[in-house]
Amino acid sequence: MDTGWWTLNCQNCSATFTVELTAEQQIVEFTRSYTCPACNVTPANLPVIPSRRTWHEIVGFTAAKKAPAV
Is the whole-model pTM more than 0.85? Predict the structure, then answer.
Protein backbone atom coordinates (compact mmCIF):
# COMPACT_ATOMS: atom_id res chain seq x y z
CA MET A 1 0.00 0.00 0.00
CA ASP A 2 2.60 2.52 -1.12
CA THR A 3 0.19 4.36 -3.44
CA GLY A 4 0.61 8.12 -3.25
CA TRP A 5 3.15 10.88 -3.65
CA TRP A 6 6.57 10.38 -2.07
CA THR A 7 9.18 13.06 -1.53
CA LEU A 8 12.70 11.71 -1.83
CA ASN A 9 16.13 13.20 -1.21
CA CYS A 10 18.96 12.08 -3.50
CA GLN A 11 21.94 10.65 -1.64
CA ASN A 12 24.27 11.74 -4.44
CA CYS A 13 23.39 15.41 -5.04
CA SER A 14 20.94 16.17 -2.17
CA ALA A 15 18.18 17.23 -4.59
CA THR A 16 14.63 16.77 -3.32
CA PHE A 17 11.99 15.50 -5.74
CA THR A 18 8.49 14.02 -5.67
CA VAL A 19 7.34 10.84 -7.37
CA GLU A 20 3.94 9.16 -7.62
CA LEU A 21 3.69 5.44 -6.96
CA THR A 22 0.85 3.20 -8.07
CA ALA A 23 -0.51 0.17 -6.24
CA GLU A 24 1.88 -2.13 -8.12
CA GLN A 25 5.02 -0.28 -6.98
CA GLN A 26 6.83 -0.54 -3.64
CA ILE A 27 8.71 2.40 -2.15
CA VAL A 28 11.61 0.28 -0.86
CA GLU A 29 12.51 -0.96 -4.34
CA PHE A 30 11.76 2.42 -5.88
CA THR A 31 14.25 4.26 -3.60
CA ARG A 32 17.02 1.96 -4.82
CA SER A 33 16.20 1.91 -8.52
CA TYR A 34 14.82 5.38 -9.37
CA THR A 35 17.11 7.73 -11.30
CA CYS A 36 17.41 11.18 -9.72
CA PRO A 37 15.98 13.81 -12.09
CA ALA A 38 18.61 16.35 -11.02
CA CYS A 39 21.88 14.39 -11.34
CA ASN A 40 20.73 11.28 -13.29
CA VAL A 41 22.22 8.89 -10.72
CA THR A 42 20.56 5.61 -9.75
CA PRO A 43 21.55 4.52 -6.21
CA ALA A 44 21.76 0.83 -7.16
CA ASN A 45 24.42 1.72 -9.75
CA LEU A 46 26.69 3.59 -7.32
CA PRO A 47 29.71 1.86 -5.79
CA VAL A 48 29.12 0.84 -2.19
CA ILE A 49 30.71 3.37 0.16
CA PRO A 50 30.08 2.78 3.89
CA SER A 51 29.43 6.46 4.60
CA ARG A 52 26.77 6.76 1.84
CA ARG A 53 23.36 5.12 1.69
CA THR A 54 22.46 3.07 -1.34
CA TRP A 55 18.96 4.52 -1.68
CA HIS A 56 17.21 7.87 -1.92
CA GLU A 57 16.08 9.02 1.53
CA ILE A 58 12.32 9.25 2.09
CA VAL A 59 11.43 12.69 3.45
CA GLY A 60 7.66 12.86 2.90
CA PHE A 61 4.49 11.04 1.86
CA THR A 62 0.99 12.08 0.78
CA ALA A 63 -1.55 9.29 0.41
CA ALA A 64 -3.61 9.08 -2.74
CA LYS A 65 -7.27 9.79 -2.01
CA LYS A 66 -9.67 7.00 -2.79
CA ALA A 67 -12.54 7.74 -5.12
CA PRO A 68 -15.86 8.00 -3.30
CA ALA A 69 -17.99 4.85 -3.34
CA VAL A 70 -20.96 5.05 -5.65
Answer: no
